[in-house]
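Q: C-alpha cells for this one, please.
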Amino acid sequence: MSDHHASKSVEQIEAEIAAARDRLAGTVDELHTRTAPQEIARRQVASAREKFTEATRTSTGELRTERVAALAAAAVALIGLGAARRRRG
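A: Here is the predicted structure, written as C-alpha cells:
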C-alpha cells in the first residue's frame, strides 16, 4: 500500500465510498430515464419531426413545395392502396 492510501482516515474512505455510491445511483437513474418507453417515444417523435422539417424546408426555412407535393401524392397513393385492399379483402 502506498503512503497516500495509508494516510487516509476511515472517514475519508467512507466519504469516497459514499460519493462513488451517489455517482453510481445518478448513473443508474439516468440510464433508467433514457430507457423508459415514454422517453424513447419522445426522442423518436422529435427525430421524426426534425427529419420531416429537413425534408420539407430549405436551410432558410422556406417550404419546398415540390417535396411537400411528392409527400402528399405518396400519402394519397398509400391511402388508396389501403382502401383497395380492404374492398378486396
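A few notes: The CA atoms of residues 1 and 7 lie 10 Å apart. The helical segments are 3-6, 10-35, 37-56, 65-88.
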